[in-house]
Structure formats: structure tokens, C-alpha cells
Amino acid sequence: MGETIFSKIIHKEIPAQIVFENDEVLAFNDINPKAPVHVLIIPKITEIETTRDIDPKKHAALLGALYEAANKIAKDLGVSETGFRLVLNCGPDAGQDVYHLHMHLLGGRKMNWPPG
Ligand code: 5GP
Q1: What is the distance between the alpha carbons of residues 87 and 89, in angstroms, rounded to a whole number?
Q2: ω into 33 cis (within 30 of 0)
Q3: Does the structure show a pLDDT above 70 at 38?
Q4: What is the CATH number of domain 5-107?
Q5: Pocket test for ligand 1, best of 6, 13, 29, 30 (most atoms within 8 A of CB)
Q6: 76 SS3 class
Q7: Which residues does residue 42 pair with via DSSP β-bridges, in sequence order?
Q8: Residue 77: per-residue pLDDT
Q9: What is the C-alpha separation between 13 and 35, in angstroms, rounded?
Q10: Residue 52 in 3-state DSSP?
């Protein structure tokens, strides 16, 4: 279920610049970065295609792990204090291209609001 390009990255079948990994979470640089820091943080399980598929009871610990990873990566990459943005695109209007839950961590430049 939910096999995408990110499954191949999880299984190391295609390369990625990995910045963080543990048993539950993988994080790697976006191939088409939109900011000096642009990391994708994903669960290793493939069953969550979008935010809509999150079951708070089943996935609470995993969500905690994703946010814990995000905060660590932001610190490690030097954007924790300057600020960063976490984005989860859900569905066509949001521009979601890859149907494997992922959090974009963007930082290293001043960002606009509202986003385009
Ligand atoms: P979405 O639009 O689904 O929220 O974001 C998908 C992101 O995945 C995009 O920012 C895109 O650049 C990135 N991406 C797509 N394919 C690859 C890939 O093969 N490797 C890496 N590192 N990033 C990818």
C-alpha cells in the first residue's frame, strides 16, 4: 500500500541526502529545494498517504516522533532560533505530489505570509 518514490528512498533503492534517521522516521534534503534549508521528514511506514489518513489514536507516537525529528533537524541545521516553517500539503489544491505523508521543513531565509 502507498508505494511511492519515498518508499524507494526508505529502502535505499534510490539515493537521497539523508539528514536524520531512526526506526520510525527518515529525513532527507528535498531534490528541488525552495529555501536554503529544505528537508522532507517522513514516517517509514507507508500507510499514511495524506494528513487525512492520520488516526490520532494509532499514530500519536509517530506524530510525536516526526515533530521531535523536525525540532532536532532545525537545531542541527542552524535554523531553530532564526525560525523555520513546517508544511504538510494535503491533496490537489495544496499541491501534494507525493502520496506518502511528509513534512517540509523550510528555513534559512525570510518567508512570506500567506504562502502562494
Ligand atoms: P509535495 O508537493 O507532495 O508536498 O512535496 C513533494 C516533494 O518531494 C517536492 O518538494 C519534491 O521536490 C520532492 N521530491 C520528489 N521526488 C523526490 C526525490 O526523488 N528525491 C527527493 N529528495 N525529493 C523528491
Answers
A1: 6
A2: no
A3: yes
A4: 3.30.428.10
A5: 30
A6: helix
A7: 26
A8: 98
A9: 26
A10: helix
